[in-house]
Automatic annotation (TrEMBL):
<feature type="signal peptide">
    <location>
        <begin position="1"/>
        <end position="22"/>
    </location>
</feature>
<keyword id="KW-0732">Signal</keyword>
<protein>
    <recommendedName>
        <fullName>SoxS protein</fullName>
    </recommendedName>
</protein>
<dbReference type="InterPro" id="IPR036249">
    <property type="entry name" value="Thioredoxin-like_sf"/>
</dbReference>
Amino acid sequence: MKPDLAAWICAAGLALIAGASARADLALGMVERTGCAYCVMWNREIAPIWPKTREGRTAPLRRIDLDAKLPEDVRLVSRPQFTPTFVLLRDGVEIGRLEGYPGEDFFWGLIGAMVQGQPEWAQTDEGE
C-alpha cells in the first residue's frame, strides 16, 4: 500500500472516531423520591415500555434520587421541587422539563413534544 493511501485511510478512520465521540448524549432524567405515589404510577404504566419506544431509544432513562446529592455530571436550571420531575438532558445539561406525572395519555404527548424536537429523533429508527 502506498504511504499516501495509508495516511488517508488512517485519517479517515480517526475522523470517524472523532465524529462518533462528538455526538451529544441525550437522556431523560427522572427525578424521583421513595414513597412518591406518582413515581409508582409512572413505574407501573410507563417504565416497562419506555426503552421499547422511539422516545425511549432516543432519550434513555436516567434515574435521579431527589434526596441524594445531584450527580456531578448533571446540571439543572433549578433543583426540582416535585416528584417525579422529568428532565431532558443533553450531555448532562437540562434542555427541557416536565414537572409531575399527568397520567399516561398526557405524558406521551408532553414528553413526545420535547424529545421529537431534538436532532436525535430523526436518527432513531421508528420500529417498536
